[in-house]
Amino acid sequence: METLYAPPKTLHRVATHYCPGCGHGIVQRLIAEIIDEWDIRGKTIGIAPVGCAVLAYNYLDIDMSEAAHGRPPAVATGIKRVHPDNIVFAYQGDGDLAAIGLAETIHTAARGENITVIFVNNAVYGMTNGQMAPTTLLDQKTTTCPEGRSADEHGSPLRICELLATIDRCSYLTRVSVTNPRNVQKTKAAIKKGFRTQMGKKGFSLIEVLSPCPVYWRMSPIDSMRFIDDEMSRTYPLGTFKDWEKEGS
Fold first, then answer.
1. pLDDT, average across residues 46-70
2. Stretch (H or E) spanning 217
3. Each residue of 155-195: pLDDT tens digit?
4. 3-state DSSP helix/strand/coil % of the chain, to nearest 5
5. What is the DSSP letter of 187?
6. Residue 95 contacts by C-beta under 8 Å, 6 or more apart in sequence?
7. What are the chain's domains?
8. pLDDT grade, residue 4 (50/70/90)?
9. Average pLDDT, stretch 119-143?
10. Are residues 20 and 46 in contact, defined by beta-carbon separation less than 8 angstroms?
11. In 7-26, which positions are buried (b, 16+ CB within 10 angstroms) versus exposed (e)?
């Protein structure tokens, strides 16, 4: 019988701690597929965040390091400078990257560090019971803004790709999602492009992935995917914000 589907070898065959309908498993599988396809397991190093993906090293069969909350870009910078021929990526959520780690993100981008950041945006703090995140939508309800996020009281959502696009030394910035098979394939292509940017020594790249959190959105997995397409993508439109290939660098 012909095999049409098989799990990536880089993905450990273990039970997941992610909630049903969470998008982290999809993104990590895509990373594993790329590593297998390019045969780069021995030269890829990942940095795990503090957040829902804190145990990412349990799933990816590559060298990985844990970083303090918000510090994966700083740790990735150090590892990449010591091992310039390795592929180094930081894997982060919105609280880790856009809240406590915002300074590290901005300054790593400003220096044009030759790393790849995979930024999973689910608009909520999923690890610590669903508090408001920097990326929570206006009027979206969380445990710390039960009446909905208010711009006057809580500020506006941070658009990370748009913010980083103002920085000269960013080479590749794109926003994708995992809401359907077509978008999943686009996400895989974006991660590949981020790795290729690094391999070509073109500098800093960030792939933002809009991802569902059914538990703390208080929705079914299917409704969570619809919410991304119908609501979340209005605040965070999909698309590429910087591309060194199109800009001729």
1. 96
2. helix 214-217
3. 999 999 999 999 999 999 999 999 999 999 999 999 999 99
4. 40, 20, 40
5. H
6. 51, 125, 127, 133, 134
7. 24-179+190-202+209-247 (3.40.50.970)
8. confident
9. 94
10. no
11. ebebbeeeeeebbebbbbbb
pTM for this entry: 0.96
**Residue 145 has which token pair?**
């803004």
| CA geometry: angle 19, 20, 25, nearest 5 deg | 75
Mean pLDDT of 86-105: 96
SS (H, E, C) 34-58: HHHHHCCHHHEEEEECCCCCCCHHH
Any idea which residue has 């710390």 for tokens? 144
What is the C-alpha to C-alpha distance for residues 176 and 183, in angstroms, rounded to an integer? 7
Give the C-alpha separation, 19 to 90, whole Å: 22
Sequence-distant (6+) residues with CB within 8 A of 113 are 73, 76, 77, 80, 203, 204
* Structure token digits, residue 43: 């030269």
What confidence tier does 249 reach under pLDDT thresholds 50, 70, 90? low
Distance CA 156, CA 245 (A): 32
